[in-house]
Each structure stands twice: as C-alpha cells, then as structure tokens.
Amino acid sequence: MEHDLTRGNVLKTIAVFALPYMLSYFLQMLYGMADLYMMGQFSGAAGITAVGNGAQTLYIITVTLVGLAMGTTVIVGHAVGSRRFDRAETAIGNTITLFMGVSVVLAAALLALCPQIVALIGTPAEAVEGTAAYLRICFIGIPFIAAYNILSAIFRGLGDSRSPMYVIGVACIINIALDFLFIGHMGLGPVGAALGTVTAQTASVALALVWLKSRRTNIHVKRSDLRPQPEVLGSILKIGVPVAVQDGCIQVAFMFITVIANHRGLVDAAAVGLVEKMISFLFIVPSSMGATVSALTAQNAGEGKGDRARQVLKDAMTISVVYGCLITVLMWLVAPAFIGFFAKDAAVVAAGTGYIHSYIFDAIFAGIHICFSGFFAAYGKSYIGFAHNVLAVALIRVPGAWLLSNAYSDTLFPMGIASPCGSILSAVICVIAFTVLNRRGTFDKLVA
Fold this sequence. Notes:
Layout: H1 10-42, H2 44-81, H3 85-112, H4 114-120, H5 128-140, H6 142-157, H7 162-185, H8 190-214, H9 230-262, H10 266-282, H11 284-302, H12 306-340, H13 346-359, H14 362-378, H15 382-407, H16 413-416, H17 418-439
Helix pairs in contact: 1-2, 1-7, 1-10, 1-11, 2-3, 2-5, 2-6, 2-9, 2-10, 2-11, 3-5, 3-6, 4-5, 5-8, 6-8, 7-8, 9-10, 9-15, 10-13, 11-12, 11-14, 12-13, 12-14, 14-15, 14-17, 15-17
C-alpha cells in the first residue's frame, strides 16, 4: 500500500497525491456545510449561530489533533523514503497509544468545562442552549475524531491519499442523511447536527480500520509497537507539537473573531459564522497543498533528494496562488448568491457579503505560508511555522479585527481585512527563513 513519492514528474506526483486529498477535504467540509444548510432552512439565525460557534470550537480541537498527527506523517514518510519499515511500525504504534490517551483525557476535561466555554466565546443569549448541547455531544465524540485523524496521518505518511478519501466519502453520505433525519424531519436543531457529525465520524473510524487491515503493506504493527518509546515519541512530538500549537493558535484567532462578531449582535454573528465555514471550504486547495508538500517532502527528505523537495514546494505554491486569485475574483462576483444559498435572512446575506469580500484576499497569500509550513515540518523545522503564525495572530489578525470592528460598526468589510494582512506577514517571514536555511544547505541533507 506504500506509494513511492520520490520518483516521476513532480507536478504529476503532486496532482496524483493532492486530488484525493482535496476530495477528502471537500467531503469533510460538506459535514459542516450540510449542518449549516439544514440549520439555515429549519432553525434561523439562532440555530446557525449555535452550530457555527460550536463547530468553530470543535474545529480548534480537531486541527490541533491534526497538527499533532503531522509528526506521524513526517516520521512515517521519512521511514518509507529510507525503506526503514520497522521504524514506521514503531511510530504508528506509539501514535495510537499517545492519541488515545490524550483524546480521552481531553474529552473528559472539555465536557466538564462546557458551560464555561460557551460563556467564554460570548455566545448570544438566543444561541447559548443550542451551542452547549452541540458541544457536549461533539466532546463525547473526540476519541473518534482523534482516531480518524490518526489513521489519515498514517495513510498520508505511506503516500496513500486515496484511502482516506473513500472512507470520508462514505462518512459524509451518512452525515448528510442523518442531518435530513435529525434536523429536517425530527427538528432536533443543533443536537441533531451534533449527533449526525459524531455518528459519521464513528463510522469513518470503523471503515478506515477495516480498509487498513485489508490492504497489503510492508508495515505490520505489533503489540510491542504500542509500548511507548521515548525516542520515537520525542521525534513525533518535536514535529507535531509546534504544528499543533500553530494550528490551534490560528483557530483561537478565528474564535476571537467569532467573539468580536458575537458582540456585534445576532445578525453579524450569524454572518461571520457562515463565512468562516465557507472560507474553510474555499481554502480546500491551499490546505491540500500544505498537506501534499509535507507528505512528498518527507519521503524525498528521507532519501536525500533536496532538489526534488524544493521543486515540490515551488509547484505547490504556484498552484495555490493561481487558485487564490481565481477564487477571489469569483467571490467578488457571486458572494451574495453563494451566502444566500445557506441563509434566507437578507440581513445575514448582506453582512456576510461585505465580510467575505475583504476576507477572500487571504486565499491568495495563505497558500504561500501554508506550503512553506508543510515544507519546514518535513525537515523537522516545524517551529518556523509555529513562530510566523503566532506572530501573525498576535500582531495583526486578532488586534486588527478588533480595532477595525470597533472603528466600523455598520459593516464587516474592514474587519475581514485583518486576515489577509496576517498572511502577508507570515509569507514574508517564511521567505526569509527559507532563504537563510537554503543557503546553509539544510535542505540538501539526508533526513532519517
């Protein structure tokens, strides 16, 4: 089942790996989009706000787990690239032990803190009950969310981006069907959205395990591989923790923006909730390119192919920037119709249109620093991604959104400018870091 990503045309290899990943990402986004669509049709602004706030909170946890799993993708990729399958087995086993322990403790802690979390994010009074109910159910499902992302990280480390696509495709169908049942037919509102999401995630884990067991591979995880080994866990965490923290910081920034919007009233809160979910959907290409760069570079770094790794980075960034320009133009043309598909409230559509018109420029610049971050992580330099993201969040994204929101209370357009400005800062830092490390020959060394 391992796929060799160190040979062949670079652009073709990127496409072959990235397209299934994009489809997987697209299908995962359909989870949230389906939830918001059904809430918009049957629950109004309060329901949209509850699911939007709840989903944003849950997404912070999910992307943090995904970031931590990046350590597994890179270590497994290095092992496969250097044909050290025993090291891959140990990395996978230790990852399973680590994530299962972390996810159970995390779920218990978040359940206990649920009321405080709902209050902390400044949820409008009309949406408090729905947000709390949504979060409680989703927190219970955190071990299954963690399990799915572990399995996806393992597949990607092996160079296989198709298997997660098949698994998530089935899970997405289940989620959409359950949304129609729980939200549309039974009228369960945010509770129904949460039940559909958790049930679908559970199904995806079961299917992924069956799929993984049925595939032929040179890697066979044994019980002894589950025993924690400090050296292996240290390698995984050295890469994964900075990525997890940086991704968590980005999502915390989005949460701060949600809090700012919540204090502007229900209409703006609903508009920002919708747009944030749409942005996640529209960023499918930059996000996919980042994961693709990590997986391809990890295997090439494991075989000492620095030139090929740099070409992967260059081609992936080119794809991301071209896509960003196209999607920016498209959103300026069709934003009202796009937002109106999910919300019937004219005020929400108008507010959301102003917000996305400025925010969408981030699609151009974010792809640059996302690809760089994936590249740095594959060489064990994930602290660079952590540094530039924290600086962008602390210096521009959050304070910029707050200042512009206070200065312009009648429109969300200025508030949306903060995100692309933050990405510009990140991109500049990444270019400087790459130039310095490249001159030192860092990317020409064999990584094992």
